[in-house]
Design a protein that fits this description.
Rossmann fold, about 15% strand, six-stranded parallel β-sheet, four-stranded parallel β-sheet, alpha/beta, 434 Repressor (Amino-terminal Domain)
Amino acid sequence: MAQRTRRGVTLRDVADRANVSSATASSILNGSKSNTRVSTETRERVMTVAQELGYRPNAIARALVRQATDILGLYFGYGHLEPHDPFHAEVLTGLQAGCDETQRDLLIHYSFHRRNVDEVYRELVGGKIDGLVMLAAPGDPLVERVRQARLPVVAMTDKIEGIPSAIADDEAGSRAIAEHLHAKGHRSVFYRLCPGESDSAGRRYQAFVSRAFQLGIRVYPARTEDWKGALGPEEHKLLDKRQELGITAAVCWGDPSANALLAHCLGHGIDVPRQLAIAGFNGIEPPVVPARVLTTVRASWSKVAHRAVGLLVDMLEGRSVPMLTILPTEFSPGDTT
């Protein structure tokens, strides 16, 4: 004789045992909308019966009723998130703190290099998430699709026009670097540009160049294609000609770039900071005490990410949010300048 398949406890089972309608039980257990007023006694009875029977609400059905999943998405448009990367770790820490604070879950979406934009777009707006935190370059092909969607979106780090954005004050940080180098007597600087498209890195460079010009500092920009900071041919040429050009300092778009340049100098007999001062940007605390303390700007990306979640939840709950939220940065001098 075939054994009967054991079915789970249903909402109907709880309603029958508690002697209430399914609508009343659903209102109490699943948060569904109902015009029926429920007494405290009835609510307690239904909750007790549900516990005794081991009833578990159906998450999918509950989401359909509430038209919300309590899940926020992250779209990361710069490849895969690497938990051991200090910047990525800061972003994830802030997002998780924000989600925990607002009782949401986090679903991470990558840049989907092997899928086309239409497929990625359908994935994001398919109903799995209530809203999206987006970390992507303004030129990412997905940006325009998301901007026109009804899905609530907040951008972080890189400002995106038409989408509420939470960023660090990159410009103030770069001006502080220029003023620090000027005070140290530097008048000719090599600037290591970001290898890819980045609104944040672009704002840093433009602000530095503008303040440097005001202070009488000449800037020689050069770019590498290596995100980890290995020097490119153009940069090698500038370093070889640094004495001829009077270059006494290098400013890097990010700390990994600065640390790579520092390692290069140490390996090639270039004294830092006597022969070449070096400054970075981001200021993420290393897990161990470094041999050299990099001059940098601290941009608390965990706080930026946390604020992005807060803005997104405000949008979901019907509150107005500013189009641009700028969090302060802090200049942090080290022994490399």
